[in-house]
Amino acid sequence: MESRLSVIEQDSRQNNIEIHCLPEYRQENLVKTLMQISKVVSFPLTETDIVACNRVQKQNPASKVPKTVICRFVSKLKRDNLLAAVYKYNKSHPKAKLNTKLLGFGDVKSAVYISKHLTQANKSLHAATRIWAKEKSYKYVWVRNGRIFVRKDDENPAKVILQQFTLKSLN
């Protein structure tokens, strides 16, 4: 039952992205900020492609990191294409990855991160998997459709990581 609920909860986020480390301002317009991101990464986006953009409460209220922004798109395809554009941009600009200066937030460069909107359980599992993969010299860790995958190298098949104990069964 818990597993089914987790799948449903993750599925409800399939059109969403999270934006981390974006500075907060009183009269901010998050839709315009998202439009600026799309310009920087050369991805055609219109305001009608965006259903909603909101900030969410912090896990740790004492943290100085700005609140995370959740943006919901009209389709999963739009979300995936924007994420691909951000990835491509960051890969082609290794010394000037997406940052606050590019988005017009002053002269100080501070990294801005964009990712899929995972449930808290999947975020924790993804973090644990990345740490485990680094220790075990796995080359790839990725998320697709709310599921976490690992691959040792180009010759080995991908494996789905559903829970932390799955990591222990891999070599």
Automatic annotation (TrEMBL):
Highest taxon of the lineage: Eukaryota
InterPro entries registered for this protein in UniProt? FP_C
One of the Pfam families matching this protein, by short name: Baculo_FP_2nd
Residue span(s) of domain FP protein C-terminal: 119-161
Gene3D superfamilies given for it? L1 transposable element, RRM domain (3.30.70.1820)
Q: Which protein are we looking at?
A: FP protein C-terminal domain-containing protein
The organism is Parnassius mnemosyne (clouded apollo)
